Amino acid sequence: MILLLLLLALLAAGWWLYVPDEDRTALERRWAPAPSQFVEVAGIRLHMRDTGPRDAPAIILLHGFASSLHAWEGWAPALEARYRMIRFDLPGFGLTGADPAADYSDARAHGIVMALMDRLGLRRATLLGSSMGGRIAWSFAAAHPERTDRLVLLAPDGFASPGIEYGQAGKVPLMLRALPYVLPDAMLRPSITPAYAQPERIPEEVFQRYRAMMLAPGVRQAIVDRTGGHMLQPPEPLLGRIQAPTLLLWGDQDRMIPPSNARDYLREIPDARLVLLPGVAHVPMEEAPEESVAVVMAFLGG
After folding, report:
1. What stretch of H or E contains 96?
2. Average pLDDT of the residues in 50-66
């Protein structure tokens, strides 16, 4: 009888904690109004926005882990006034959702960027990436210098750190394995707040957007798959091949990828410069959009 009661209690707790994916149509209606569009690229239905003058130099923006193209909204007015601004939800995130091939490697991301450039008729573009998107951007620039004009990296990922070693598949903690079935605020908020120097100032709509994108169909399982399948490789041989002038942009309060990591990139990338933003953490485009985009505009204009 005690075992039966315990089983019933566990079932009841599981039912109470269970959070299903949200309806795709409703999510797209709320979070993908114009100028959002959905295009088939490399076998994936990409959620993207393509704004600004069509004959202007193109910039492709790559967001960070568990984020979406909405992260760049604060930069859009400045960038799209002078550049063709192209941003999309990377496969496994946002309204793009899971990759049917379940391939979340950097090489797969490079192929998608290349295919999108070809679809849009872009011979070259500036790549701009944040965190994980920064790693995809610089590794693309290393592999395809002939397609890369300039490079802007916001606290890019790529070097080994405690718990993340070269040549080893990512470890998936037990709590993360439960992600496809649950998403309590007590789990989500602590994963977002370290990205901000002043987390108490995170707008509620931003938190709700992150939550909505996590609940897009297939995204939570894709995050588990990406984490378990990623294998970091030593970046030095690739960084030395980068030919594009490179801006490193870091918040001096970044606790997720500390500013001290910048010296590794400055040492390895042939033409790189660093700008530190005071009082800003890991997502300057969201926390300090006006100050951070001004630095980017100055670099691109120069």
Report:
1. none
2. 97
